[in-house]
Amino acid sequence: MWGYGEALLAKGGEYAGCGTNRRSGTSEESDWRIGFVAGQRKLLWKNPGEWFMMDRQQKNSVREEWQGEMSSRPIRIIIVGMGVRSMIYAREALEHPNRFQIVGVVDVNPERVQTARKTFGIPQEHCFSSVEELAAVPKFADGVINGTMDQQHVPTSLPLLRRGYDILLEKPFAVNMYEAERLLNCEHVTNRHIMVCHVLRYAPFYRKIKEILTAGEIGRVVDIRMAEQVSYFHESVSYVRGKYASPEICGSGMLLSKSCHDIDIMTWLMRGNDPVSVSSVGNVFQFKPEMAPEGAGNYCLVDCPVERTCPYSARCLYIEHPQRWTGNIWHDIGYEEISEEEKVAVLSDPENPFSRCAYRCNLQIVDHQSMLVCFADGATGTFSMNGGSSASGRHIHITGTRGEIYGIFEEEQFKVHRIAPDAPGGRITEVVDVSRDQNGNAHGGGDQAIIHDFVTLLRGEEPSPCCTTLDDSMTGHRLVFRAEESRKRNGAMVTV
């Protein structure tokens, strides 16, 4: 029988799915294990009677030894799907080698596998072409970064959970409710942890808004309005010409693949007040043949006489301005470092999806979508996603019973208006500046913060309040799934 803290485990003291830890440098089993009680990681002691007989100093010593075991070595992590997102997280290991290391890689592309091997010093025996290969060998790491495509998230995560790995899983964690429930059930059965990559939670902009709401500074929330503007060059790279343009490739629509970050923020800020119904509308407005410039051809660099004046010129966006998401392009099609002449040749190939006219791509997902949400207490929320904007931007406006919050994420500040009848104009305004904390990083520094929070979790320590569990993320995903159902029913209000 195993116990933890000053109490015994439920269900007759049994533990479920606990991995056995071994003392560093020895082959002998230690007297403690890491187990899970009510979904929380706990220190389990082999002989509860012995634990209860210990004085406070002895118990503290055991705790310190356990924590020391976990902190005495770097956490070992495997990359599954060596895409752009995975590499953003994994490169933090190069800056913090004493905290965590990349010790394995899985990718169907052998060139990417070799790139990872060279970058992180991964031994050949820890390089795999499939998750099945990885799951077939004994566990050799603490956790996994799963950066596969959307529809691969669940099929690749299930065998890894069963093998005993905790997972940092890219969003969206599933592409439909059936898959979401399969993954959630497996996580519960195996008693592993999945942290979902909702990186915006870690941005100081949203963390500070969360603090203000939790403190009740603007009263109860009456309405929350959010919008995401997707820049025209990001739209072109990912959602018109790229792999996220087709549900057959990525498995999800744009609201799920692009804006589940924002929907997660909405449900996180409204935590404890679940959405109960949603209505949604959206369609393809811009990216269709009738919206193409007069005289436009089918391929930018092949037969288009107006290419140089088109905002979606492949030459302009993908060659002449490399800062406009072009890294995704050349990475996705397997060309990391090639000359400008070679890039022109690649983009002149009609078989290359990035060579196509943006208006003639037969877009399978919407380029704009809006939704109206009703919450359990009667509060309302709206969200709009607009693709093809002049610049990226995330807007938020929260109305409370005692004030308002308004801001734009990219401006790295927001205003808090508090009702004050005796003040000039009847309100007091505070400008909250988070620019120093966000430091201009993508997602407000969330990309870096989340991988370190994952490492904290793997160490058996308490993660930050921003940590997104699978159960927690399910609320936002369910809302998106139901919003898409409403859109297909011409905006009919559906229950969540």
What would you say about this model in short?
By secondary structure, the protein is of the alpha/beta class. It has helices spanning 48-53, 56-71, 84-90, 92-95, 110-120, 131-135, 153-163, 177-190, 204-214, 232-240, 247-250, 254-257, 260-269, 300-303, 314-320, 326-332, 340-347, 435-438, 446-458, 470-488, and strands spanning 3-4, 7-8, 19-22, 29-37, 40-45, 75-80, 100-106, 127-128, 143-146, 166-169, 194-196, 221-231, 275-283, 368-375, 380-389, 393-400, 403-408, 413-419, 427-433, 494-495. The strands form 3 sheets. Strands 19-18-17-16-12-15-14-13-20 form a 9-stranded mixed beta sheet. A 6-stranded parallel beta sheet has the order 8-7-6-9-10-11, with helices on both faces. A 5-stranded antiparallel beta sheet has the order 2-1-5-4-3, with no helix packed on it.
Query: Segments where pLDDT lies below 50 for 5+ residues?
Result: 1-41
CATH topology of the largest domain: Dihydrodipicolinate Reductase, domain 2
Radius of gyration from the alpha-carbon trace, in angstroms: 25 Å
Task: Report the biggest beta sheet as strand number plus sense, adding barrel if it closes.
Answer: 9 strands, mixed
The CATH architecture of the largest domain would be 2-Layer Sandwich
- How many domains? The number is 4
The helicity comes to 25-40%
Coarse structural class: alpha/beta
On the 0 to 100 scale, the average pLDDT is 86
Beta-strand portion reads: 15-25%
Span from first to last CA?
42 Å
What is the overall number of helices? 20
